[in-house]
Amino acid sequence: KNCTLIGAVAWGWDGKWYYPTDSLLAKHGYFLYWSGGQFGPPKDAYLVIDLSAGPEATTFPVIYLSAPPTEGWTDEYKTTKLVLRKIPAGNFTMGSPTNELGRDSDETQHQVTLTKDFYVGVFEVTQKQWERVMGTWPSFFTNANFRDTRPVEQISYQHIRGYSAGSGWPENNDVDADSFLGRLRAKTSLTFDLPTEAQWEYACRAGTTTALNSGKNLTDTKKCQNVAEVGRYWHNGGLDSTLDCGISHGTDKVGSYLPNQWGLYDMHGNVSEWSLDWYQKDLGSSAQTDPRGPDGDSYRVFCGGSWFYFASACRSASRDSGWVYGNPYNHVGFRLTMTVQ
Q1: How far is CA 177 from the centre of its chain?
Q2: Which pLDDT belongs to residue 297?
Q3: What pLDDT sits at residue 302?
Q4: What is the pLDDT of residue 325?
Q5: Contacts for 88-93 with beta carbons within 8 Å, 24 or more apart?
Q6: Which residues of the chain fall short of a pLDDT of 70?
Q7: Helical H runs in 135-214?
Q8: Is the pTM of this model over 0.85?
Q9: Angle at the Cα of 129 (from 331 to 145), degrees rounded to 5?
Q10: What integer pLDDT is reported at residue 296 of this predicted model?
């Protein structure tokens, strides 16, 4: 964007970082970055947590990478390690246009500005990663041959953040010590959390304004090939799901579909993902900066659709909510974030 292309090199800067993706590299060749007076990709483009020592570990080591490993994100990064990508601050139009196929009435478009960079999980948190932190296997899809790399589900908002201190958002971002986030924070000394609803949609869209982050729209509200390209939903594997099924039904192995331009996988489908915010029917049309959602309710927002949903519920702007005091859902999981202070 706003760069001059010289041969195979994109040159210039417009005040934002643009990280290379496979599709960009295939189209434009190599990218150079100016960072701290030196050429090269940002050294902290990716954050990797080493969970291999398991729930009895006193610390989980953290390293930063400038680029994915040469062999790509192997199963190691979906099981015993957990990887997040740095997303640049910016602004976008949250919600959906009135003519978007499958649109719901609670998707009023409004401008949102996010003033801080943040890290977000490249993949949904998997069952093995949950076990490495918590020591348990809570998910509905229990087939031992496939569960390690499937997203964890049947975990509530309270399991992730806690029943006491963890219920305080948006007044504060505290979590219970024995929750998933409490343990992860204590063992990394980093303030990981769920994304706000605005952070989630911004990360999902990755600059797109279409219904899907592939740059495509829906062709049908129920069964749509464009959705099948980017995630697991009802009509490409969700149907006929049982607790011991393989990955041809129910949830799929994370990273099995096309990523968005920021290299994030499964933002559409597989499992819906908890956000921090309480649900509010009307987000309004006024511009917002770093929104934290309403003050309170009984329902928290989850985003992205799942294996359990039709195509329309898997759009970037689609919003759903779950009762935080009820039983956990077998189609809802989560993705980690960490806001850069």
Answers
A1: 23
A2: 84
A3: 96
A4: 85
A5: 88/16, 88/17, 88/117, 89/114, 89/115, 89/116, 89/117, 89/118, 90/16, 90/114, 90/202, 92/201, 92/202, 92/205, 92/207, 93/209
A6: 1-40
A7: 157-161, 180-188, 197-205
A8: yes
A9: 75
A10: 87
